[in-house]
Design brief:
Blueprint: H1 3-6, H2 26-45, H3 52-59, H4 63-69, H5 73-98, H6 101-127, H7 134-158, H8 167-177, H9 186-201
Helix pairs in contact: 2-3, 2-5, 5-6, 5-7, 6-7, 6-9, 7-8
Length: 208
Amino acid sequence: MTAHATGRPRRAAGGKAPGEVRKPRADARRNREGLLEAAKTAFAEVGAEASLEEIARRAGLGIGTLYRHFPTRDAVVEAVYRREVQQLADAAPRLIESMAPAEALRAWMRLFIDYIAAKRVIAPALKLLVGGGSALYADSGARINEAIALLVERARASGDIRPNAESADLLRALIGFAYVNSAPDWEASARRLIDLLIDGLKPQRGER
């Protein structure tokens, strides 16, 4: 009896049915992550002009492997930035599951400072993107807004923060904390300011 007669989808010689999307192999995923981490480090240490060959060398991979994942330099830069945004956005629901509402918000805000630090590292390379990265920034801004809105809504609903607290205000405060990011201690200062902000968001008597 043929595969067609039994109703089962035909499979090609490699065992893949028509229309089936093959997941990346574990080693391919590791290589991609290694390349992205190497690229981030290279941009920090060498600068925006770090070559693709340098990135591949730091990852311990051949240049051919890099090109299989990222066909152009712009693709590398964009992927590094998108990974930073993805990690920040993904942190919100994870923190909600594991921490009290106000503490989840505090932890995410601290991660935002880490994101700003990483963005500062790759900013010169982002400026070299075709179009200057404006579309990339717009997409990342929407995802970050969604993440902090989720955390603030939960913290308000639980009574951990004031009912009139707005996620847009907190995000503007975070950006302000990170504005002077050339000082050597700006990250520690920003984290202290986050603690002060969270304390100030606690509802006063009668506000719950």
